[in-house]
Amino acid sequence: MPKNSKVVKRELDDEVIESVKDLLSNEDSSDDAFKKSELMVDDQEEKDVDVEEGSDVEDERPAWNSKLQYILAQVGFSVGLGNVWRFPYLCQKNGGGAYLVPYLILLLVIGIPLFFLELAVGQRIRRGSIGVWNYISPKLGGIGFASCVVCFFVALYYNVIIGWSLFYFSQSFQHPLPWDQCPLVKNTSHTFVEPECEKSSATTYYWYREALNISSSLSESGGLNWKMTICLLAAWVMVCLAMIKGIQSSGKIMYFSSLFPYVVLLCFLIRGLLLNGSVDGIRHMFTPKLEIMLEPKVWREAATQVFFALGLGFGGVIAFSSYNKRDNNCHFDAVLVSFINFFTSVLATLVVFAVLGFKANIINEKCVIQNSEKILKLLKVGNLSQDMIPHHINFSSITAEDYNLVYDIIQKVKEEEFDSLGLKSCQIEDELNKAVQGTGLAFIAFTEAMTHFPASPFWSVMFFLMLVNLGLGSMFGTIEGIITPIVDTFKVRKEILTVICCLVAFFIGLIFVQRSGNYFVTMFDDYSATLPLLIVVILENIAVTRIYGIEKFMEDLKDMLGFSPSPYYYYMWKYVSPLVLLCLLVASIVQMGLSPPGYNAWIEDTATEEFHSYPTWGMIVCISLMVLAILPVPIVFVVRHCNLIDDSSGSLASVSYKRGRIIKEPVNLEGDNTSLIHGKSPSEVPSPNFGKNIYRKQTGSPTLDTAPNGRYGIGYLMADMPDMPESDL
User: Fold this and answer.
1) Contact criterion met (CB below 8 Å) for 525 and 304
2) Is 440 a known ligand-binding residue?
3) Residue spans with biased composition (Acidic residues) (predicted)?
4) Fewest C-beta in 10 Å: which of 177, 293, 446, 529?
């Protein structure tokens, strides 16, 4: 019990909870002995008191050192690897610049409103996800537990990606880069290029064979990859050290982990724009294909990207905002962070396609040279006539435009036998249309492009350090979404819980650093979060708008912000967002049902990817991931609805949640409760004389906001105590 108590609560009977300030103001004038008792009461309006939220006596919740630190934390959590390797892919696949239209519309319809909702409930209630949804409705308390489970599943494999980035980062301090050329194999007679590498490419070979040493199927474990095991351990050590003191430690790291990626992206953009072919990539990227924009699939994928880009449902947003002051303008924060996230995605898209345009230009030049040599051979053997070649064409220094001119002429003249000539159309657009995302973009396409950069090791170090920082920023929010609710609910030490959580996650995460680990990463990415998070956010919306009450919530926002939020949010939360989320949930279930569950396996002999269906046990794991993630919701509902656990019986009863109010219930306190004053023992504090009237919570009646004490009235009712002897009063 803290000694510098602002508010004293005393239990005289079953559920007696006193407000010292009210006792002082309502005491009879003749009760001098009570008035002379040594009490320290501060004005509740002057300091941030968290009475109703159920802190012991004074809310000693940590707080952000500055508004900038908090914004950087939210930006670091929401801006992650998906902004770099998922958004550009979706933009290219779904109509280029036209894709930005549905994305922006859905950002306004579900993104900002739901992000604002999570920020507001976290700041209003000042608890993690478990405490927040218990506060709103005890029967829906499972929402918070479900968020914790999803966060844990995501943290398991997300940190593996950080481990991969750490491995590439460690290998970037050499020139030439180890993935620059295919390795040579020597035997007793001669030296030759590694066949697997020759059939694919140097960067593809390095990713699948040198880095992952991947097996041919999910069922073929192949044992641990020790290089990646060490990198995974390093990643978890970094996360643990950064999170061990909560926001007091991770908040300071945010200044670097959140800002450094922007420095790297700007450097890459400037460098990329100076490369040959970069403008072609950017032009291709933002050329709108308006007809694609009308397809339902485009809107579904845009909604999914908006949903996951902001980290909705994970609990990290709520956890971070719970450390804010109550009067913080969370509406401004929601709009600011959402648009920072959007513009970061656009910036990353510019960088990616500037670099991919450069890469496509190099590949196109190689294509032109190789096919020009074929044409020269065909001219020498007489299969082609010199007359069909324009006089200005010089094959020793032919350009892409000249080659395409010759190609079109030959195709028209030799129409019947053209296919047998073996000539290829070298169009830069064909190369740019080869959409890549995820690890294929970061560890294959982008690394290949960087090998052609001057000073390529420097750019490789910068790129993978950026990926590490993007990943860590998201991991901090994800781990905070696990740690904060558990600490708030079960009152365990944050340092011990953080270490235990990271250790458990590391040992479970060993399944991802087997030789077949990449397939498990794909499985968890596809099935552990998508559907459970959609269900979680739908229930969050229902809990606030239907159970807590949208009108009451709008009043809370007015009280917090100092102004009434726009009616736009009222209609979005109550009608539009739930409808859009339900449509997205149905579309995701249909998409999951239509898509055969499986993964792309790397086949060593052919050096190609091949689609494999999940085995029976793999399907069981996929279903189990979804069920386990959402299972806490019905379990908690049944337990609370049927009163299967007595909340007043013991360890979990330190906080009771009743109709939107949290009341602290001291457990196993014996002796004179005046020991709560100044933290003294019963023997040290004289027993004051009480008046006949005290504030007593009326048993069996609803908790109403009837008392004027404090900014947020707890709502006590007056009750007489006729059974107490007059001498004791």
Assistant:
1) no
2) no
3) 40-57
4) 293
272 has binding-site annotation: no
Largest pairwise CA distance in the chain: 125
How much is the average pLDDT of 40-56? 40
474 is in an annotated binding site: yes
Rg (C-alpha) for the chain, rounded Å, is: 32
Instruction: State the pTM of this model.
Output: 0.76
Structural domain spans, the chain: 78-363+435-642
d(CA 92, CA 88): 6
* Residue 76 marked ligand-binding: yes
User: What number of helices (H) and strands (E) belong to the chain?
Assistant: 32, 8
Compute the C-alpha angle 110/111/114, nearest 5°: 75
pLDDT digits (tens, 9 = 90+) for 123-180: 988 888 888 898 888 888 899 999 999 999 999 999 999 999 999 999 999 888 898 8
Return the sign of the alpha-carbon dihedral for residues 114, 115, 116, 121.
positive
Q: What would the pLDDT profile of 658-682 be if each residue is shown by its tens digit?
A: 444 443 444 444 444 333 333 333 3
d(CA 56, CA 51): 8
423 is annotated as contributing to ligand binding = no
The CB density around residue 344, as the number of other CB atoms within 10 Å, is 22
CATH T-level topology, domain 78-363+435-642: Amino acid/polyamine transporter I (1.20.1740)
Q: Which two tokens stand for residue 659?
A: 């109709």
